[in-house]
Structure formats: C-alpha cells, structure tokens
Amino acid sequence: MEFTKIRGGFDGRISRIGLGTWAIGGWMWGGSDEENSVQTILMAFERGINLVDTAPAYGMGVAEKIVGKAVAEYGKREEIVIATKAGIEWTADGAVRRNSGAGRIAEEIEDSLKRLRTDYIDIYQIHWPDPLVPIEETAAAVARLYREGKVRAIGVSNYSVEQMALFRTAAPLHIAQPPYNLFERGVEKNVLPYCRGNSLSTLVYGALCRGLLSGKMRHWTKFVGDDIRGIDPKFQPGRYERYLNAVERLDRFARDNYGKRVIHLAVRWLLDQPGVGAALWGARRPEQLAPVDEVMGWTLDKAAFDAIDKIVAECVADPVGPEFMAPPARSSNNPDIPLPSTNPAT
User: Which domains does the chain have, with CATH numbers?
Assistant: First the structure.
C-alpha cells in the first residue's frame, strides 16, 4: 500500500486508497448487509487501507454505525483514519437536503461520535455547500470543533474554488473531496490546481464511476429499486453503450501494456494525477477489495496518459458529469420545500 500525509493536518499517514462506504449504508444502493459490511471494512484494514470515508447521509446513520462497529472489532482505533461529513439532514420519509448551519453541525458532530464509537474524528468534511448559510458561519462552526479537539483535520466536499477560498477566511482547511475519475474530469480545470497551489490534500471520490470502471458491467446489467445508477445519465440507453465501449477498450489497453485490467488502470490513473492524495474505493463485500493490491507497484507514463485520453475521447463524444448527484437545498421561504438540485462544484 502507498501512503501520504494530510498537508498541514495531523501527523499521520493515510493510505492512498481509502474505503468509501456510501454503498455500505445501503441508501441508493439497494439496501445494506451489516455482517458483510463489517467484514469488508476489516478486510480493507488487512490489505493496508487505514482510511475509511463515511457520512451520516449514507443510510441515515447506518454506514457510520457499521464503521464504528468494525473499528471497535478491529480494536486499534489509533491506526485508523476516520473521515466523515456534516451538512446533510433528512426527514422522516427519507428525503435529504442541505443544512450547514452552526446549530446543525453542533448536533451532527455529537451524533457521529456516538455512531462511530469514538471521541474524535480524524477528518471532518462539509458534505455539500449550503446556499442558505454563509460559508463563514459553516467554517467557524467546524473551526470550533477543531479547537476543541473533536476534529483533527477539516475538509470540504463538492466545493468550488471560490467557496473554498471563502471558507479559508474563517477556518483552516486541510482537505478537499471532489468527484474525479476517468469519465468525470471537471475538477481538472480549477479545483485540483487550486488544491495543489494552496497545499490542500485531496481525497477524490467516485474512482470507479459507480462501478462503470470495474469492468464487471454489461449492456444487460439491470439497476433496480433505489439504485442511483437508475438515474445516472451514463447508464441510460444510448450513452451507456458508448461508455461500455470505452471500458472495453481501456481494459484491452491495460491487459496489452501492463497485464492489468481496467479496474486497476482506472485507480492507478487517479493516483498518478498531480495533486491527488488518495482515491476512495467503494465496496460492500470483502471480495470487491481483491483488486486493490494490483493497483500498487507501477505507474503510468505520458504516452499511456495520452493513449487513455484518446480512447475516452473517441468513445465518449458527449461526456456527462456527476451533477445529478447533488442533493437539494432547503427553500429560503420554506425550509421544508426543497429547491432544485444544483451542480457539484468544478
């Protein structure tokens, strides 16, 4: 396993592959299996992964509880870096919306500490910017937790460059978590250069583009129930076939040049990008972590990057980003009526 440090944060190493637990929470992924999920987290630790990224919104507390149970079973809390988030609330019927007010953050930190069975959180991130709350208010609320020792490093997810700059006027900022993968590359223009220029570490999410880059999907693969891929534009007829063609060609390139598969190539591509600290690997069954070892011990050169870009450009003429995932804001007139979703920052 490769490791890196949080720039300006706590003195500790994080694995360059982190375990993402959105699917473990079950919400928008067809339900949760607690025992399988605990074993998946323990398997990640066995493979050298010490970074676990979660959030209260992942199953409305389910993912955090499972992470807490697994870390307690592992028994060496000091070896594990837990990253969680704040700024999303949900209603009794399961609707989610943004709320990054100071009062909401003060409530969320206590709930997360209980669910995670810990008295501190290594990395605390604001999940989405809230257009109804001044960013300075949100930042000041997290800075208070940082001073109190409840939080060891501060991060933001899905923030634009302008929003991060404003956040930094009221609090230290150590980490950014943007969406980034071979097919979703909007952050290359502004966010990643800003992070490099301002010594912010990055934990990029969506490394396998919701499984599309795993190489496991076929044109007949079905997504049922609340599975988020049912509403992802990439998985809709017409466009889905073009993405699958790109995956097939990338897989052939990986096999012919490195003796690897597309899943290894996709994550190695991320780790070799300037400014990327760690990539989050989503899994909810232990066997889904088997390919992790094959990502380590090799790198891509410029010729490989150029060849990969050419394949993607030839196969996907009309790429779409992760905008559809943005949760709604509350209404300024009535906080119980959500506003339309806004795009994630690029």
Answer: 3-211+268-293 (3.20.20.100)
